[in-house]
Fold these 2 entries.
Entry 1:
Amino acid sequence: MKFGYFDDPNKEYVITTPKTPLPWINYLGSSNFFSLISNTCGGYSFYKDAKLLRLTRYRYNNVPTDEGGRYYYIKDGDTVWNPGWQPVKTELDSYECRHGMGYSRYTSEKNGLEASLLAFVPVDENCEVNQLTFTNKSDKAKEFSVFSYIEFCLWNAMDDMTNFQRNLNIGEVEVVGSTIYHKTEYRERRNHFAVFSVNAPIDGFDTSRDEFLGAYRGVNDPQVVAEGKSHNSIASGWSPIASQQINVTLQPGESKSFIYVLGYCENLEDEKFVAPNVINKKPADELLAKFQTNEQVEASLAALKANWEDLLSKFTVHSDEEKLDRMVNIWNQYQCMVTFNMSRSASYYESGIGRGMGFRDSCQDLLGFVHLIPERARQRIIDIASTQFEDGSAYHQYQPLTKKGNADIGSGFNDDPLWLIAGTSAYIRETGDTSILEEMVPFDNDESKAVTLMEHLKRSFDYIVNHKGPHNLPLIGRADWNDCLNLNCFSEHPGESFQTFGPSEGPVAESVFIGGMFVMYGKEYADLCAYTGDQAEADRAMKEVAAMNDAVLDGGWDGDWFVRAYDAQSNPIGSKSCEEGQIYIEPQGFCVLAGIGVETGEAKKALDSVKEKLDTKYGIVLLQPPYTRYHVELGEISSYPPGYKENAGIFCHNNPWISCAETVIGRGNRAFEIYKKTCPAYIEDISEIHCTEPYVYSQMIAGKDAHFFGQAKNSWLTGTAAWTFVNVSQYILGVVPTLNGLSINPCIPSEMGTKFTMTRKYREGVYNITVENLNKVEKGVTKLIVDGKELTNTTVVPYEKGKAEYNVTVVMG
Ligand code: BGC
Ligand code: NOJ
């Protein structure tokens, strides 16, 4: 069943009922100011950091679900309704929500009155704009009132929902004209305040939540709205809100718009006040002046759309596969931007107060983002590398506001160092900018310990070389990519964090997965060394890579698939000899991706085993058989009920690894089959089973051992976004940035037809690519024609400095 449809020309998903199985959300903002917004107008806003600078409140896992957002109550006679249906939930005569690139638009109608709400965060502005347009569609004049409502968060979202003995005393506001200023803690150590304003005279306001809602009432039935008259309340402590009342009269056919702005403003320390405890409102005045007229709003929306048109023009495909095209050209890249911005901090499943930026997560997010805005990727790489330690290990997370490593979680996740090589290599292959390798970058944010980024990569590489176990495989530490395989943890008491309990280093527990990663990214490290003239280091690196390749094939091969790891007693995990968890997805994907066993047949065997043992109709599960009891020697993985999360859920992040791996051995049909199984656009028709948004990936779909097989959770913030984009663009469509130029070597399914075209902006050039496949092969390039000239024995279009356009024909056969 579907709850909407894709509108590709407008790059929108159109939701046609507010009653989606779960809230279906969108993200507004792309640099500093962000909002989450659901299909019923729920969600919240923050500036830079969802934990430390939260503007509006949101109650996670609330009942009823998703209550709290930017709400407009329309009181038309005895009927009260909202354009987004929530929170009053009056049945609407019509409803539509369009989630687009950085904006959402809601159009609803009730009793002949249409309300259209446009919400977006303008490019490079610290505010959310809500343009609310009313149209009288009836044949009689209409008189009604509109009451706006947002609830302020007292900035630190963690404190806001826990430290009530303090924070119920500190709320403060100012009201001037149609503008409400939220200034909690401004009198002391904050130099920022929030503002909520409307561009029209108002008929009343409220800033006290309890006055507005009334005792024991909820946002679904505010007292003030029921009475039809604001109380003009001034909040003092308790819970500050912003609400404005506007009485509107509309003749038949007449329209009127109101522009509401929620903004974040800062003042210099010595310019905070114009009188004792009275805010200097200059920055707010300047911000609000930009959004006073419909023309200003339209121009700002047009700029936002143009920005996205430009970003999404960097990679496009036009093929017979409509759903593939829409994911590649629109939604997958959009999600890559969101994961780059948010890491794993704020979604409807991540509370914004838990994790900051993840070291491995952000490095992987880069892989799907770097072609969009390489300059931002560059800065991110430097920020991430600055949280590395001198021995090559790294803080597992850092806070976006301070950019400092998070000491609570510390280090010891032994895959982290290699992801830095992955991210940096992707950036250099995309841009050719090797100057980044010469940047001086600190260790642990200590500038006195700065070395070149290249030296950081060397430390990353050597961390693995210097931390090997009895099988000459990398030590796993606290965990590798699979945060739940905690082999040195041995946690026996509830509340101990699986990720930080126990020693971070164990003498023997090893990871075959990191072995695969080392072979893959060790080669990329060697390439970078050779490319920048250090052939001796490249040779040394390739020797280590060859040794690891052998170690994986010796100690890491189980006969029909790759072993997953060795535990603290050196017993294999993910082996036929195990009672449960005999085969895991991760090493099959990554070892083959790295090229291990491709020549000697292990790669094909491993992928065949994946198909036989792990595949399901909704995607490939992480392991089989699932753990049915808690294994203290394995940790969190066995804490999940069978079929959920890492315990045999369909982890969407590593399904693309298998798809990529299939292309490495040339099986385009199988690669595409895997791609389609978890791809949102391809499973839109089963939204009632899948439940999460049909335009973005979720982290996990419940596996075949779970009660709700096929149901997804944790949408939006997942490495799946970047990896599916890498898979589809680089491995299936085959467009790979290399150090020397763009390589085009597709591995495709029969349904791609005999011809498709792509455009790729790469460095200074635009590549217009036509792929011809008259013989319908799955892989293989017989001819590469660049601007009419045939190149032999290569898939790489050599990079020519400054050249603006390349016309490329790739003939498969
Ligand atoms: C989840 C993992 C996640 C980890 C982060 C675990 O509870 O299952 O998916 O990586 O938390 O700390
Ligand atoms: C989610 C985490 O954000 C990511 O870092 C981890 O690799 C996966 N879960 C798997 O555990």
Entry 2:
Amino acid sequence: MRIFSGIQPTGSKHLGNYIGAIRQYVEGQDRGDPAIYCIVDLHALTVPWDPATLRESLYDTTAILLAAGLDPERCILFRQSDVREHTELTWYLSALTAHGDLNRMTQFKDKSAKQRELVSAGLFFYPVLMAADVLAYKAQEVPVGDDQRQHVELMREIARRFNERFGEILDVPEYRIPEVGARIMDLQEPANKMSTTGGSEAGTVLVLDDPKTLTRKIKSAVTDSGTEVRRGDGKEGISNLIQILAVARGTSEEEIEREFEGSGYGDFKAAVAEGVVDFLSPVRERYEALRPDEAALEEALTAGAGKAREIASGTLAEVRSAIGVGPT
Ligand code: ATP
Ligand code: MG
């Protein structure tokens, strides 16, 4: 099973990224042959960025992934811009992508509405680059959070269209979305997903937040005027905290509801805070040990890029030959 997934080096990664994606990456290392994980700095250029901050965040994200348990001996971990095949394949695939399909992507609609100065063509093209990321490795499985379902469906369509036209060259990948925790919501705006670039600061729980900050954010999470710790309509805030605690403790949402039957929201939030602190603290501690050694991080990424390029360049040679580009 070839596994591929990407994560943006924008800002600090949050609990949604950790639960929806990073947790699955770690688990995928043992199933993946290979498991390929990419820090997608090119995707980060689709919204305004600062060059120096982007470089820093790239190392932050690398160190978070290693701290979470990715092992460069058991997976391929690399930086997207190191492997030029991604951008080349993006162009070839763009010729098979319907403009109308890109126009109906909800991520494009949401993110373009939030841009104040420039809605870049890059933001519109994001799903094509993402299709190229995955298809360049002929990956069969793509671990992602629920918000990326639509993009994976689109890349499946692009791969099918390519194969119909040019022969069975690309694999049509499946997404892998976790059963619990596929969509962690912003603690202050529980109708919106927790997000690196779009969410509220107080409602975004960062993987690297210290225990005091974690506790403050969770205790001030928006709930509802009711009293029952259970999931349901109009209980988006409480439902979100239930799913978070279930994942943090490695149990089910039903089990959490049973345990907190009759408890008040205050006691419940205190338990969620404690659960999240226990869940994230080991990652933060390992991060603090790993992050200062940028040379070691760079070395791991460079080695990963070498392995990635070997696979991607093979696919690109097949693609070029099939579509009639370059010498015979
Ligand atoms: P942005 O909001 O700027 O797109 P992001 O928070 O979505 O940033 P990404 O790097 O784009 O971060 O996403 C990395 C992975 O995390 C993706 O697989 C995505 O589906 C997953 N993910 C992002 N937000 C959540 C969330 N709130 N709950 C669960 N998974 C999430
Ligand atoms: Mg995203």
